[in-house]
Design goal:
Four copies of one chain form a homotetramer. Chain A is an alpha/beta fold. Chain A has helices spanning about 35-40, 45-50, 75-90, 100-105, 110-130, 160-175, 200-220, 245-255, 265-270, 275-285, 315-325, 350-375, 380-385, 390-400, 405-410, 425-435, and strands spanning about 10, 20-25, 30, 35, 45, 95-100, 135-140, 180-185, 190, 225-230, 240, 260-265, 290-295, 335. The interface between A and B is large, with 96 and 96 residues.
């Protein structure tokens, strides 16, 4: 091995370390609120960005210098497996995630493609066995190949729907084979280019049919992974059906699929939809649908998915704040780095630096969020703000005893009304103090 | 009277007229697809922009020159009623819409406020009777008064919830009194400033409670108007709960309220949420929730609600295309001009010009959309695009006969797959031709 | 030949034609304001989108079905030349534009790359000679190859600056050889990823040095093409130095380069910078810098360069309105379709449909704009609006006679001030009428 | 006094203080890079937000509870002066800033308006004398009054231009009277609503004329304040002429005004223009035009000027990083809180909390930025990145010795080229460490 400059395992050295190859905040064994950082965070490395991505963008060829650049076909696929487990070891990360097409090349036929996949899955299984690393989730790439030009489950072509079904069937088989804890659906081409040529009703009905068939098949084979849908509003499609958390939940409720799915939420997808990451997490949380996260960040002055490594401590703190308050925390999900090094950071070591950056940001976020919760820094404020709903007319509203007559009678004799400041600026000061002081 | 320069009723003069006070496209009696333009469009004038608005913005005082500028209190309120019916006559528009606080001033107590309202409602009723004009919808303004600083139904203060209930109770009474065809809920302050101090779950539960109480009360008094919710993603709140059509439907489904509500969709709110207007209309349509529209347009290079009069023929055509394809068209809803003249268009006559602009744009949109539908210009394309789902494996998918086994078997022997171009550019050329030629 | 389905030359058939392969508005010989449409518009086909582009995007492989897909190397390059001249004939378009790397493959060395280029340039010259087609502009692609990862003229690596100089030197030689009427600089990588590692001052100084060297060399070889800079605010870079028209002019003024350069303005780049296309054209026009345009359109709800074929008649009308009012019109520039068929429009014929769409949109825009000017539809309004600056105190202001003392004296006795409405809504109605009626 | 809850002077208590009325980071006497924090930061309080603003927004009335709410006219104006100096004392801030119309009410005539102003200016002068507080800058509000509906210096009405001149003349007199260190021009209405009715060339010429007259008058009266222009891209106008730093510099260069003006840059204006704050500061810095800053922050998911108190430590650090590297630091400028408490933070004490929040954020930013500079944390990286321009071919490029011939010769023999990673992720990790550790 040695795809990443023969770097040894990155260790925790504390916040003042000047060693670029050390963790400053991520201490896997540190206990926070009764669990280790490792258990809270369940970090995952994303196969596509770190082993398949090459730094290309719409205006430029790949820049990434990688030890496998000269390889191709199955040889390349095998090298990437080596590289993946090398990086997991360097980072001391337990999980990884992949699309089927990340790990093995397509063949001329679906049969050949599946044989390629089977071979690499077997190899990955060996590595998992020997290393103890685990599969956080797998998924099927149904957006890269030109056959999915009009969508997969929402294609206008029934042949493509059938192909997509076959592909997901195989991916579910492989997920089971590798003991995946989750299975993700991200519909990069499940959307439309123009309403002028789109039968929106049929496409959404078909998407629901597809998901139900996947649920049925997983049950049939006894694959008990948590199914996750990953919302994104746009890109590559002009409009994508799983626009954001609320839209996805609306769809799942309408088609009676909500009980089978949770959400895999991504920071950059949230901001593209006009939301903060913590908003999406909160929406999922209060609907019992917070499943897993794709940790990255966007550039809010850019209008596309930049998939940067997460470094903003506000975002990581508020994300962990939602996760810690979620029943069971992140549960079977994890913190998957759906993030890529910048095209200008093209050396292998940058991949290591970038993961350290992201892991430290989330570790710090975990520390800060845990302290905020322990101290009830915001909880006390919220409890007091809504106290009026725990007694008198407020309690009647919540319990269902009040109606428009009783409420009007109350209002007519209750003059004037006094509100209290929301104190946002003070709360933000407190957040800054916690980020620095914890 | 004479608030609008003693302009007589605006007449249709045809598309080549150079009379700025004539309709070029809106011919109320022209029959389109079996109904008159008047019946299709059911235009409404918005009280707040045309009679209460004064051209102020966050950086400047009102500029509007209006005949009622020297008045105040109930005298002002009465003058505005006169002005409203004058403008309806000038424009030959049948409907108007108002918030309770548009039509009458608040008093020192809710009792006094209600008395003011009762008096103006009685005056409006007289004018409706004598003129034959009708109330498209009314609504309660629960965002301007400081008491609603933290929301109305989603306030942190139970006293405010009670006040809001009393206010909506009165508004429902008035809606019934005036024979309103719809009643609208727009929650300008139903949202949050910061998640740091917000109990999102409680606020949404309370919103559902509030809406159910309104449904119950309307039933009790026999007010059978269509209830409508108007989505908007942000502004004034940082985040508003009724973000867009899908989010609002998710909420309604979750709380079992969907059967009682449809949507009142606004163009500028759609674009602020990152959607085209036709997208929002389509989403509502396929969910049986297209209730009414607020006709205006935003400036997509500006990030706030500009509420411009709708002039873009693409937008008006595609909006009418969705409405014509909606079962029952716009139904009990209408095309309400939630639009204001620019602050720089401050003369009374600009209000007339602006409505002519908007009515002509929608009339032209109706003509174009009707012809597109009659000619099946897009329908034939769509039918052919999705033809594979009407036979063979596609029919099996739609009927529920297919499963992952049969689909995989099909896919394994079906190589290669052939897709067809979506032809977006050609369809756009056709749309241009229709807009010019119809 | 036959890369485009053996389509014959597209003819003008008039606005009611239902022939998808006919022009509805573009009639090359129609006289408008004393010149033919052909002379006004000087349409160009963009080599990169129509012959080199393949429909790939960051999430998917190329979908384009093209007759040259099986070819590679110089054989591919030659096929594309054939295809280019075939399409120019089909569309009856006089001009084309290319980057050096569009037309010939890079070799292992710059020497080999240049030999490849020379060979294809010779082939293109033959085709130009036999067909009479002309080169609107050429340019150097200094953004695709990984060597330009940190920029070309603004790189942090002097070796790359030297390479870029060598590349532009060759491109200027080829421009002269082919009689290019313009030469374009678009700096896709001339910008920064992060200020943390960027010496902004040095990079901009070097950009100025580079441009001066290019000016010097062109003069030396007697290449008298108009030099053009094409602004774009971002993408691929996080920030690009030629952000918009004003920023580019600031740079040119600062480094005393303004006399040597005009601007090549693109609609989609304008909207990415937060401007309308007509704004950018107006800014260039009043600074004597309107050189040429890249005709396309963006999707204002998407945050990246979609490079759609221009179809919006408002945009094409207002663009042509600026061009017609520019001294000398588009001059030596032209209307280059820097536009690509959607990934879902992957058949060769879509390229033809798309250009017809764009040419018709601009032809209609030209007709409408010319009529607006002939009728002084807006000019009369403007003349009257600013009339106060032609007499009295206004004339003193413009002539420089007024000062703060005389102005104060005037203001103190001039009370109240009366303004007139800007009439925007009425002007928009008039614009709609012209678009439909002309 | 006692407009702010009789709060005593806020003291520095250190980063672990839980006293909401103490500074955690701002220690005015702490020495950083040889100067006190007080000298570096030169904080200013903005009259308009803190004493004139009332918490209203386009959808709601003012919510602010203030001790002067019952007053009006000159009595109100005088109370606000008291409140201003009270707050300056509470915060131990040395500077304040105002628009003419913030401090005194307009009368029926310009004469009366000026008398009101004179009276309050005299009162302010007394307070300044007794308290030692200073005027960072004053400015003229030429956007609120309806007379400026079409602009002030860029109006279409010469009478308005004259009025604006008279207003600025008075403001310059008052600036001199109070010893203002700067004078600011922010052109809220200097822009356009629509190009359809706008003579862009004349408006910009007039703007230049106006500024030159102001320069001339200031010279005449011996007012030696630094003149500053404050860019903003839009809002309230659809387009504002001083769009961003580069656009403003282009204008100043074109009209030969650059030597008389520097820029007053605002964070929220930067982001509305699509830039980071640090970008705008850097652009100003390398052009010798960094004059002063308006410290606030926007919400990048909202499209309007939210003017939030600055709390983001990344932004405050990178702003101070630019200022520290500017020759002379902030110079005669300062850090003015052009920021308002949220409408939901309506109690007087929130104004104090909010300023503490902002002052601490900038104090921390100053500490972090100073340490980054002392340690050359980024400077070393930059020096190494651009080292190739200090020798060999790079030195020839910079010195002007190289030309296209010598560069081509060099490039032809220099194969392959090797670039180095830009290391953005690592640099971001380092920034996080500094923010936490300093």
């Amino acid at each position: 091995m040695g795809y990443f400059d023969h770097v040894g395992t990155v260790k925790f050295e504390g916040k003042s370390s000047t060693n670029p190859l050390a963790f400053k905040f991520y201490n896997p064994d540190e206990i926070i609120l009764g669990k280790t950082m490792r258990e809270h965070l369940r970090f995952g490395v994303a196969y596509w960005h770190s082993f398949t991505g090459n730094g290309s963008d719409p205006f430029g060829a790949g820049t990434a210098l990688r030890g496998w650049n000269e390889l191709s076909g199955m040889e390349l696929a095998k090298a990437r497996v080596e590289a993946c487990f090398e990086l997991l070891n360097i980072l001391d990360v337990d999980y990884f995630c992949f699309h089927d097409r990340d790990i093995a090349p397509e063949g001329d036929t679906l049969q050949e493609t599946n044989r390629n996949l089977d071979e690499i899955v077997a190899l990955i299984k060996q590595h998992m066995h020997s290393s103890g690393k685990k599969l956080l989730w797998n998924t099927a790439n149904m957006f890269t190949n030109p056959r999915f030009v009009h969508g997969a489950a929402t294609t206008s072509n029934a042949d493509v729907f059938a192909y997509a079904a076959a592909q997901v069937k195989k991916a579910l088989d492989h997920g089971k084979e590798l003991g995946a804890e989750n299975y993700v659906f991200w519909g990069g081409r499940e959307g439309y280019e123009s309403l002028l040529n789109t039968d929106l009703g049929l496409e959404l009905d078909n998407l629901a049919r597809f998901l139900q068939l996947a649920v049925d098949y997983a049950k049939e084979i006894g694959f008990d992974a948590q199914f996750l849908i990953e919302p994104k509003p746009k890109e590559p499609s002009k409009h994508q059906y799983d626009f954001d958390a609320a839209t996805t939940l609306q769809f799942l409720q309408k088609y009676d699929l909500a009980k089978h799915f949770k959400l895999n939420l991504e920071a950059n997808h949230a901001t593209l939809a006009g939301h903060t990451f913590e908003h999406e997490l909160r929406v999922a949380r209060i609907n019992g649908a917070l499943g897993s996260i794709d940790a990255n960040q966007g550039d809010l002055l850019l209008g596309w998915d930049t998939d940067e490594f997460p470094t903003d401590l506000y975002a990581s703190t508020l994300a962990m704040y939602e996760i810690l308050q979620n029943e069971g925390g992140i549960g079977r999900g994890g913190v998957n780095f759906d993030a890529k090094v910048r095209r200008t950071s093209f050396e292998p070591i940058d991949v290591v630096y970038a993961h350290i950056n992201g892991m430290d940001a989330f570790a710090r976020g975990l520390q800060v969020a845990a302290k905020l919760i322990e101290d009830r820094a915001f909880d006390n404020v919220i409890e007091e703000r809504y106290a009026s709903f725990t007694k008198g007319i407020g309690a009647d509203i919540v319990s269902g005893k009040a109606n428009f007559h009783t409420l009007e009678a109350y209002a007519l004799q209750n003059n004037p009304i006094t509100n209290k400041s929301g104190r946002v600026e003070l709360l933000r000061s407190i957040l800054n103090q916690y980020i620095i002081n914890v």
